[in-house]
UniProtKB/TrEMBL annotation:
This protein's name: Uncharacterized protein
InterPro entries reported for this sequence: UPF0194_transport
Localisation per UniProt entry: Cell envelope
GO cellular component: cell envelope
């Protein structure tokens, strides 16, 4: 069978038109490319670059630790636990009651002490009444003695007047007065002796009262000590979070409760060669190793004595930092104590995808590098080691990158 390859005139016309159109389009594209030409690349000059200067950061290893802690051991001698007011994980404030002791074993002893005090008070009351009676008798005898002394004085005065008289009647009266004087002096001596006996009784009574009162004082002291053991509140000494271990109720070697302060604290170690470079209140930068997060902190304490550890061959000192935010206990950290040692002007930094970048000069070209830095007062302070002293950075990196597109 023979095939017919001859095209009709109409089809030939259509093919010619398509070819012409394709030629026109291709020519237009070529012309446009030629007209556009290569864009002139932004010129980078050495004079516009910035040489990094400064000093290398002092770096130390650190760890987040407990800043303060209260450990509570159960003391069964104070009684049984009652009114437990906190639970594991609960936050408490200083002064909050954690639990109480109840000791009923001492109640009988306290009652016995109370009976002894009451008995002694009764004895003191009775003896004091007896003392009052004796003093009353002394007062009466003293009155009698005063009266006898008065009479005796009168008699002695009369005797003195009659002693020089020669009259018989006066002599007889004189003799009678002498007899009266002897009688009064006898009574005076007798009453004085009675008073002395009664005063001796008063002294004995006062000694007895003092003995009862001193005994009561000692008993009351013992009783008050026991009263404190009947019921005693255990309170929180610090603010923090309570950790409860029920094993501690029956095992005195295990802490029943621990209150852990929420105040963050970091402990780090510095060598004997660098300790002189640290000062209290110095600002530092902390890097959390596990997350790469940077947190500012302040040095609060530097140990005066070196670290003592078995087998240690180098001298080191612990120092302590208060971070601006909490860090989980036990997290490892890198401590940078002069993190502002290397600064980068703001004009040499740009942000890309919320990250900080610089353009590092590399011959006649550059290298785009992401860095870790903190911005303070229009200056960036380098936190990582992505670039170092002596490297040169290109100014206005955003403009340079835009011009190279």
């Amino acid at each position: 069978m023979k095939m017919d390859f001859n095209l009709s005139k109409k089809k030939k016309y259509i093919l010619i038109v398509i070819a012409v159109v394709l030629f026109i389009i291709l020519s237009a594209v070529i012309i446009a490319i030629k007209l556009k030409g290569p864009k002139e690349k932004t010129t980078i000059t050495h004079e516009d670059s910035y040489e990094i200067k400064g000093e290398e950061t002092l770096k130390f290893n650190g760890i987040s630790i407990i800043s303060d802690e209260q450990i509570i051991i159960v003391d069964k001698s104070q009684g049984e636990l009652k009114d437990i007011k906190v639970k594991d994980g609960q936050e408490v404030k200083k002064g909050d009651v954690l639990f109480s002791y109840l000791n009923t074993a001492v109640e009988d002893q306290i009652a016995q002490y109370d009976r002894e005090v009451t008995s002694n008070n009764g004895k003191v009351s009775r003896v004091k009444k007896e003392k009052d009676k004796v003093n009353s008798s002394i007062n009466k005898l003293q009155g009698d003695l005063n009266a006898i002394s008065g009479e005796l004085n009168k008699v002695q005065s009369e005797i003195s007047k009659l002693s020089t008289s020669q009259e018989k009647e006066a002599q007889s009266q004189y003799n009678e007065l002498l007899k009266t004087k002897d009688v009064l002096e006898g009574k005076q001596l007798e009453v004085s002796q009675q008073i002395e006996i009664l005063r001796s009784q008063v002294n004995g009574i006062e000694t007895e009262v003092a003995s009862y009162e001193e005994g009561n004082k000692s008993i009351v002291t013992e009783r008050d000590i026991l009263k404190k053991k009947i019921g005693k509140d255990i309170i929180a000494d610090i603010d923090g979070v309570v950790k409860v271990n029920s094993k501690g109720i029956d095992d005195p070697t295990v802490a029943y409760m621990r209150i852990i302060s929420k105040e963050p604290l970091v402990k780090a170690e510095v060598s004997e060669f660098d300790v002189k470079n640290l000062k209290i209140d110095d600002e530092v930068m902390l890097k959390v190793i596990s997350s790469g997060e940077y947190i500012k902190g302040t040095i609060t304490e530097i140990d005066e004595l070196p670290i003592e550890e078995p087998g240690r061959t180098t001298t080191g000192y612990n120092f302590y930092i208060k971070p601006e935010k909490s860090i989980r206990i036990g997290f490892s950290l890198e401590v940078k104590c002069n993190y502002k040692g290397i600064e980068i002007p703001k004009d040499y930094v740009y942000e890309k995808d919320s990250k900080i970048h610089i353009l590092k000069e590399k011959g006649e070209s550059y290298e785009d590098i992401e860095i870790k830095a903190t911005l303070e007062n229009d200056k960036y302070y380098l936190l990582d080691g992505a670039i170092g002293i002596g490297d040169r950075l290109i100014k206005n990196p955003s403009t340079v990158l835009e011009g190279s597109k």
